[in-house]
């Protein structure tokens, strides 16, 4: 055994039969049926995120076509042909990584080689990984081959970004979408591996590895492998947290328990201990904002995972909804600000202290960044167009709230009290993926919805979204809160989030996933601040401008005359 070459878990437990492929039933069934019926396509396009089994299935197709008994939907895995494909020695199965610089040369070689019949096998199979990364020249060259494929050639393109594959190539391929594995599916596979490897591992640790892998089988197995290498004795969740750099639940609950008090000394002591434990502050801040999001979800009854856990319940009881939103915003903002802050310990301590203060006690916007704050608001406000220009569209400033807009949930009212009073420039278009704060989203929210309604032409989606309110921004996600009354709208939105995400991308230049939660009904007095018109909330300087220059607000339709951004 000792002399055997080391094999990674992913290679060792790679699916060797179609039955063994987990979570891609729709793909596997179609492919097997086609092979059984003798319908062999010359081009396949496999789309899906990393580690979902695209190349694994591609190799299975190579075996199915070339098995000594084949073509067969059930390759035997024991004949010479199957074995040569399993161990990677089959000369007629060519795997290329399009991400390499040589892709043009590779495609040239492919075009030359594909003319000749296979040397050993029935079909020549070309597996092109990361196919979207082929250069434009290589794509053109490849298209010529795909237009007139020799009968003995099969091309399987795998990509994580199908939109970057030209339609001319896509239209000549059978396209299959690989989905991410669920925690249960990945956990099940990990359990099988753990048993086969005789691992002593806590079930919770398996589930945690499955969750951290975010749907990727490959990532789950490589993380498990690292944990095996690190742990001594029984593998616990603590080992998984340590190896993955994630912050353990225990530490997060402890942070929550300290923040629930007014004991500043304990906050400093906790920050000190976390630093001494060698924690990564960025990871701590990120995990903390996610943790308090989970607490918020538990508090409003949308989370069942922790509902029987006393420590979690205590934490949910210790904070009000508005306070939780405030804390989420503080940690998310602090994580973002780390880019400009080399004093990580100070950043952690300040985040703790700010989070200990009740929202009402916070006078200044907690998250104002140095860069943004430096920009003078005057640069971004222009003189309003003369009201006479469009007399028909003139409306009073105190535009009443449209009746379709539901009462606002409590957290929003609280969060908007802290909104900075200066309008900020919208992020530049190159800021794709950059994070924004909740305040920024709230200020632009009506504009986003108008964009979804008018530009993206999704009035129904916009109307549904109006029933909810942005309540948290964390971990590249925007959480929309819906009260019980609007539960139906929430359910419908859950299947239409892409339009809202597109709207956020177009208006704010940032990529945020939409999540939804149920929130409590607002208390009557909490609605007071929301009596302001939408325009006033969005443009706090508006009244000043109107006072200075005179005039009234012109209905702005799709474009916003107050912003320099188009
Ligand atoms: Zn075989």
- Spell out the CATH superfamily of the largest domain: DnaA, N-terminal domain
Number of domains: 4
The name of the CATH topology of the largest domain is GMP Synthetase, Chain A, domain 3
β-strand number: 10
Principal-axis shape: globular
> What is the overall pLDDT average?
78
- Order the strands across the largest sheet as they lie in space: 2-3-4-1-5
Number of helices: 25
> SS-based structural class?
alpha/beta
Protein traits:
566 residues, 3-stranded mixed β-sheet, Helicase, Ruva Protein, domain 3, binds zinc ion, Rossmann fold, Zinc Finger, Delta Prime, domain 3, 4 domains, 5-stranded parallel β-sheet, alpha/beta, 9% strand
Task: Please tell me about this protein's structure.
- It contains 25 helices and 10 strands.
- It has 566 residues and is α/β, with parallel strands linked by helices.
- It has 4 domains: 9-177, P-loop containing nucleotide triphosphate hydrolases (Rossmann fold, 3-Layer(aba) Sandwich); 183-244, Helicase, Ruva Protein, domain 3 (Orthogonal Bundle), CATH 1.10.8.60; 249-366, Up-down Bundle (Zinc Finger, Delta Prime, domain 3); 377-554, DnaA, N-terminal domain (GMP Synthetase, Chain A, domain 3), CATH 3.30.300.
- The chain has a 5-stranded parallel beta sheet with strand order 2-3-4-1-5, sandwiched between helices. A 3-stranded mixed beta sheet has the order 7-8-9, sandwiched between helices. A two-stranded antiparallel sheet has the order 6-10.
- The structure holds zinc ion.
- Zinc ion is lined by residues 67-68, 75-76, 79, 81-82.
